[in-house]
Amino acid sequence: MSDGEGTVAGADEAAADDALLVLTAMLLTPSRFPSVLGDDYVAACGALALEPYEEGYGLILGQDGEGARWTVVVEDASQVAVAIAAWDCGMEHDLSPDERSMVCA
After folding, report:
1. What global pTM score does this model have?
2. Band of the pLDDT at 83, cuts 50, 70, 90?
3. 21: helix, coil or strand?
């Protein structure tokens, strides 16, 4: 930026409001699923209106800059498992799903 240029007032605040922050993630697989969704994998998928998928799903939970919560379901459960393992070890891991792997949001 040159000396004569400045930032638009509120631009940083607007960018912060648009930010999507990942809070946590979990697996929805035949062997591992949130029991609050159902007694078995098929019931858990049904609670989320998902077809049971042999490889399972990854659930990414987060919030936007205004505090609204969101959940993204991805087909790449292995990517979510790697992120969870890294976080459990205290390591950073960017969990930004590819649009092609997103099932629903």
Report:
1. 0.74
2. very high
3. strand
